[in-house]
Amino acid sequence: MKVAVITAPGEVELREEPNSEPAADALQIAVEACGLCTMERRLFSGDKKIYPVAAGHEIAGRVVAVGADVAGLGGAPQVGDLVIADLLTRCGACSACRRGRSAMCKRPQGATLSDGTMTMGAGLAERVTVPARQAYAVGDIPVTQAAMGEPLACVAHSVRMGGLRSGDRVAVIGAGYMGRLHMAVARLLGAESVGVIDISAARLDEARSAGASWTATPDDAAAHAHSADVVFVTAGAPGALQMALSLCDVAGTVVLYGAFPKTHTEAVSPDDIHHHENTVVGVFSQEPEDWRTAAGWLRSGRLGPELEALVTARFGLQGVAEALALAASSPVYRVLVGG
User: Fold this and answer.
1) Are the CB atoms for 62 and 30 separated by under 8 Å?
2) Which of 92, 148, 276, 330 is the most buried (most CB within 10 A)?
3) List of domains in the chain
């Protein structure tokens, strides 16, 4: 089978990889779509210099083979099912995993191809093989929507850790792909209102069209001070934490979803947080229960129109270089590869 390997900045090649039968507890998926996220963009642009590497972790596809222990097993995906798949390699043994916080697994992620090439998902391929427990059937929906399963699992983790409840007032800082998914999910879960803040007028226009209750640039955000119960920071820009805290009403929660520069710091008032009982939560990745939640959202079809609006372009696996170039050089929501 073919698998895409990023070999250097701006360079990717399709390699042949042996196609083995799945182990007894595993299943094999024919990849129909794989989303390109920030990690793939950084690898291809040279911002993240890890080469060679087989990337791609936002996959959806059809089950084409199941191991002996999976065949006919109630609840397990079977041949022909459209599935999303968790490609992380959680160890289950470290202190984080034992506490049920496997998003923070301490064992290095990934594996290798047959030639020793490092993998970070290796979903930019014709097929992937995963333990059956890490695949989730999503019913009869477009594969373009199913390919958003992993990002939706991350959003499920974000809203769970942030304690979002029906009736909450929500603000989202960042109107990019993950900001739009947070907005869509908050509306799905019954938020009273969802405001969106971004520097791009075009993206704010698109957020309003998609149902945002209000939008603002960072310069205009002060007009919405103390108006949110939960604030999701999906764009880790300087000043975002201070802005998020200013948007919070008393007993509000700030969820730091987006990555910040590692050297960046911000001055915040511990006394202000104390007296207003505000909470700042960091979230990263997703966990198995978040995948179950995301699969349920996808099966319901209720996010369908919002998800379809976030497909910027789609390429076959042979066009992976063009897809990566587009994702790395242009403002996009999601570029999909495969099928």
Assistant:
1) yes
2) 148
3) 2-148+310-337 (3.90.180.10), 154-282 (3.40.50.720)
